[in-house]
Specification:
The complex is a heterodimer of chains A (about 110) and B (about 110).
Chain A: E1 4-7, E2 10-14, E3 19-25, E4 33-38, E5 45-50, E6 56-59, E7 62-67, E8 72-77, E9 86-92, E10 97-98, E11 102-107
Chain B: E1 5-7, E2 10-13, E3 19-24, E4 31-38, E5 42-50, E6 53-57, E7 64-68, E8 74-78, E9 87-94, E10 103-104, E11 108-112
Parallel strand pairs in B: 2-11
Antiparallel strand pairs in B: 1-3, 3-8, 4-5, 4-9, 5-6, 7-8, 9-10, 9-11
Classes of the chains: A mainly beta (about 110), B mainly beta (about 110).
Chain lengths: ~110, ~110
Protein backbone atom coordinates (compact mmCIF):
# COMPACT_ATOMS: atom_id res chain seq x y z
CA UNK A 1 0.00 0.00 0.00
CA UNK A 2 1.08 3.55 -0.70
CA UNK A 3 2.48 5.10 2.48
CA UNK A 4 3.55 8.34 0.85
CA UNK A 5 1.61 10.29 -1.76
CA UNK A 6 3.68 12.63 -3.86
CA UNK A 7 2.54 15.46 -6.12
CA UNK A 8 2.72 16.70 -8.76
CA UNK A 9 3.72 13.88 -11.08
CA UNK A 10 5.55 16.30 -13.36
CA UNK A 11 6.56 19.93 -13.12
CA UNK A 12 7.88 22.41 -15.64
CA UNK A 13 9.50 25.57 -14.30
CA UNK A 14 11.33 28.43 -15.93
CA UNK A 15 14.95 29.03 -14.99
CA UNK A 16 15.05 31.17 -11.87
CA UNK A 17 11.62 30.09 -10.73
CA UNK A 18 10.59 28.17 -7.62
CA UNK A 19 9.86 24.45 -7.82
CA UNK A 20 7.59 22.98 -5.16
CA UNK A 21 7.00 19.27 -4.65
CA UNK A 22 4.74 17.90 -1.95
CA UNK A 23 4.55 14.64 -0.08
CA UNK A 24 1.77 13.43 2.22
CA UNK A 25 2.29 10.55 4.58
CA UNK A 26 -0.03 8.36 6.61
CA UNK A 27 2.08 6.62 9.21
CA UNK A 28 2.67 8.89 12.19
CA UNK A 29 5.57 6.69 13.23
CA UNK A 30 7.72 8.32 10.58
CA UNK A 31 10.44 10.42 12.10
CA UNK A 32 12.77 11.02 9.21
CA UNK A 33 11.71 12.64 5.96
CA UNK A 34 14.16 12.51 3.06
CA UNK A 35 14.07 13.68 -0.52
CA UNK A 36 16.05 11.84 -3.17
CA UNK A 37 17.15 13.17 -6.55
CA UNK A 38 17.64 10.93 -9.57
CA UNK A 39 19.26 11.85 -12.87
CA UNK A 40 18.74 9.70 -15.98
CA UNK A 41 20.95 6.64 -15.95
CA UNK A 42 21.79 7.01 -12.28
CA UNK A 43 20.41 5.65 -9.04
CA UNK A 44 18.63 8.02 -6.65
CA UNK A 45 20.81 10.02 -4.25
CA UNK A 46 19.85 11.69 -1.00
CA UNK A 47 19.29 15.41 -1.56
CA UNK A 48 18.06 16.68 1.79
CA UNK A 49 16.29 15.27 4.83
CA UNK A 50 14.54 16.57 7.92
CA UNK A 51 13.53 15.24 11.30
CA UNK A 52 10.16 16.35 12.71
CA UNK A 53 11.63 18.24 15.62
CA UNK A 54 12.27 21.12 13.18
CA UNK A 55 9.80 22.64 10.73
CA UNK A 56 12.27 23.68 8.07
CA UNK A 57 15.75 22.90 6.85
CA UNK A 58 17.66 24.77 4.19
CA UNK A 59 20.68 23.64 2.23
CA UNK A 60 21.68 26.10 -0.44
CA UNK A 61 18.80 26.52 -2.87
CA UNK A 62 16.96 23.50 -1.46
CA UNK A 63 14.55 23.80 1.44
CA UNK A 64 12.53 21.07 3.05
CA UNK A 65 9.56 22.08 5.16
CA UNK A 66 7.52 19.90 7.44
CA UNK A 67 3.92 20.27 8.60
CA UNK A 68 3.24 17.68 11.25
CA UNK A 69 -0.43 18.50 11.74
CA UNK A 70 -1.13 18.15 8.02
CA UNK A 71 1.18 15.13 7.72
CA UNK A 72 2.97 16.72 4.83
CA UNK A 73 6.49 17.66 3.89
CA UNK A 74 7.60 19.65 0.90
CA UNK A 75 10.68 20.34 -1.16
CA UNK A 76 11.26 23.86 -2.43
CA UNK A 77 13.93 24.57 -5.02
CA UNK A 78 14.67 28.26 -5.20
CA UNK A 79 16.20 29.85 -8.30
CA UNK A 80 15.67 26.60 -10.22
CA UNK A 81 18.36 25.80 -12.77
CA UNK A 82 18.35 23.53 -15.84
CA UNK A 83 20.81 21.30 -13.96
CA UNK A 84 18.06 20.63 -11.40
CA UNK A 85 16.08 18.79 -14.07
CA UNK A 86 15.69 15.33 -12.58
CA UNK A 87 13.18 13.08 -10.88
CA UNK A 88 12.60 13.73 -7.20
CA UNK A 89 11.31 11.18 -4.70
CA UNK A 90 10.13 11.56 -1.16
CA UNK A 91 10.55 8.50 1.00
CA UNK A 92 9.21 6.79 4.06
CA UNK A 93 12.31 4.98 5.22
CA UNK A 94 10.53 3.33 8.08
CA UNK A 95 8.44 1.34 5.61
CA UNK A 96 11.02 1.22 2.80
CA UNK A 97 8.54 3.05 0.58
CA UNK A 98 9.07 5.85 -1.92
CA UNK A 99 6.68 8.32 -3.42
CA UNK A 100 5.78 7.92 -7.08
CA UNK A 101 8.27 10.58 -8.13
CA UNK A 102 8.10 14.04 -9.67
CA UNK A 103 9.80 14.69 -12.97
CA UNK A 104 11.09 18.25 -12.85
CA UNK A 105 12.05 20.08 -16.03
CA UNK A 106 13.63 23.49 -15.72
CA UNK A 107 13.50 25.42 -18.99
CA UNK A 108 16.36 27.81 -19.78
CA UNK B 1 35.05 4.95 -0.39
CA UNK B 2 33.75 3.01 -3.34
CA UNK B 3 30.05 3.28 -3.98
CA UNK B 4 27.48 0.58 -4.43
CA UNK B 5 28.24 -1.55 -7.46
CA UNK B 6 25.79 -3.63 -9.43
CA UNK B 7 26.45 -6.21 -12.08
CA UNK B 8 25.61 -6.62 -14.82
CA UNK B 9 24.52 -3.14 -15.88
CA UNK B 10 22.39 -4.39 -18.75
CA UNK B 11 20.73 -7.71 -19.37
CA UNK B 12 18.43 -9.08 -22.05
CA UNK B 13 16.49 -12.26 -21.37
CA UNK B 14 13.53 -14.05 -22.87
CA UNK B 15 10.29 -15.02 -21.19
CA UNK B 16 10.54 -18.07 -19.00
CA UNK B 17 14.24 -17.70 -18.29
CA UNK B 18 15.68 -16.84 -14.93
CA UNK B 19 18.16 -14.13 -14.00
CA UNK B 20 20.52 -13.35 -11.15
CA UNK B 21 21.61 -9.82 -10.33
CA UNK B 22 24.46 -8.92 -8.03
CA UNK B 23 25.06 -6.04 -5.65
CA UNK B 24 28.16 -5.10 -3.66
CA UNK B 25 27.37 -2.60 -0.89
CA UNK B 26 29.57 0.16 0.42
CA UNK B 27 32.22 -1.21 2.75
CA UNK B 28 30.83 -1.35 6.28
CA UNK B 29 27.20 -1.27 5.21
CA UNK B 30 25.38 -4.36 6.33
CA UNK B 31 21.88 -3.56 5.12
CA UNK B 32 21.06 -4.10 1.46
CA UNK B 33 17.71 -3.34 -0.15
CA UNK B 34 16.42 -4.04 -3.62
CA UNK B 35 13.97 -1.96 -5.63
CA UNK B 36 12.26 -2.32 -8.97
CA UNK B 37 11.85 0.89 -10.93
CA UNK B 38 9.46 1.19 -13.85
CA UNK B 39 8.02 4.29 -15.52
CA UNK B 40 4.51 3.41 -14.50
CA UNK B 41 5.06 2.18 -10.95
CA UNK B 42 7.98 4.23 -9.72
CA UNK B 43 10.28 2.71 -7.10
CA UNK B 44 8.83 -0.47 -5.67
CA UNK B 45 10.47 -2.10 -2.66
CA UNK B 46 11.38 -5.76 -3.17
CA UNK B 47 13.21 -6.82 -0.02
CA UNK B 48 15.83 -5.87 2.51
CA UNK B 49 18.61 -8.01 3.91
CA UNK B 50 20.64 -7.51 7.02
CA UNK B 51 23.26 -9.92 8.33
CA UNK B 52 22.26 -12.55 5.78
CA UNK B 53 18.62 -12.46 6.91
CA UNK B 54 15.65 -11.06 5.05
CA UNK B 55 14.35 -8.37 7.36
CA UNK B 56 11.62 -6.82 5.23
CA UNK B 57 9.71 -7.79 2.13
CA UNK B 58 7.56 -5.95 -0.38
CA UNK B 59 4.54 -7.20 -2.30
CA UNK B 60 6.17 -9.18 -5.07
CA UNK B 61 5.47 -12.77 -6.12
CA UNK B 62 7.66 -15.63 -4.98
CA UNK B 63 9.45 -15.61 -8.34
CA UNK B 64 11.50 -12.79 -6.87
CA UNK B 65 13.99 -13.94 -4.28
CA UNK B 66 17.23 -12.77 -2.81
CA UNK B 67 20.03 -13.60 -0.48
CA UNK B 68 22.89 -11.96 1.29
CA UNK B 69 26.32 -13.36 1.91
CA UNK B 70 28.54 -13.03 4.95
CA UNK B 71 30.48 -10.21 3.27
CA UNK B 72 27.17 -8.31 2.86
CA UNK B 73 27.13 -8.76 -0.90
CA UNK B 74 23.67 -9.57 -2.14
CA UNK B 75 22.04 -11.26 -5.08
CA UNK B 76 18.49 -11.23 -6.31
CA UNK B 77 16.99 -13.84 -8.54
CA UNK B 78 13.93 -13.70 -10.74
CA UNK B 79 12.65 -16.99 -12.07
CA UNK B 80 10.25 -17.64 -14.94
CA UNK B 81 10.67 -14.16 -16.33
CA UNK B 82 7.65 -12.29 -17.63
CA UNK B 83 7.51 -9.33 -19.99
CA UNK B 84 6.38 -7.15 -17.09
CA UNK B 85 9.61 -7.83 -15.25
CA UNK B 86 11.42 -5.49 -17.61
CA UNK B 87 12.66 -2.73 -15.35
CA UNK B 88 15.61 -1.06 -13.72
CA UNK B 89 16.59 -3.00 -10.61
CA UNK B 90 18.27 -0.87 -8.00
CA UNK B 91 20.24 -1.97 -5.01
CA UNK B 92 20.81 0.30 -2.03
CA UNK B 93 22.99 -0.14 1.01
CA UNK B 94 22.84 1.59 4.35
CA UNK B 95 24.06 1.38 7.86
CA UNK B 96 21.77 -0.68 10.12
CA UNK B 97 18.43 0.93 10.85
CA UNK B 98 15.66 2.06 8.53
CA UNK B 99 16.25 5.71 9.35
CA UNK B 100 19.62 5.90 7.72
CA UNK B 101 20.42 7.28 4.31
CA UNK B 102 20.30 4.73 1.52
CA UNK B 103 23.09 4.76 -1.03
CA UNK B 104 21.96 3.50 -4.40
CA UNK B 105 23.89 1.75 -7.10
CA UNK B 106 23.45 2.61 -10.80
CA UNK B 107 21.05 -0.26 -11.31
CA UNK B 108 20.74 -3.20 -13.66
CA UNK B 109 18.54 -2.61 -16.69
CA UNK B 110 16.68 -5.86 -17.39
CA UNK B 111 14.81 -6.30 -20.65
CA UNK B 112 12.61 -9.34 -21.09
CA UNK B 113 11.69 -10.20 -24.68
Amino acid sequence: QQQVKQSPQSLIVQKGGISIINCAYENTAFDYFPWYQQFPGKGPALLIAIRPDVSEKKEGRFTISFNKSAKQFSLHIMDSQPGDSATYFCAAPYDMRFGAGTRLTVKP
Amino acid sequence: KAGVTQTPRYLIKTRGQQVTLSCSPISGHRSVSWYQQTPGQGLQFLFEYFSETQRNKGNFPGRFSGRQFSNSRSEMNVSTLELGDSALYLCASSLPGGLNEQFFGPGTRLTVL
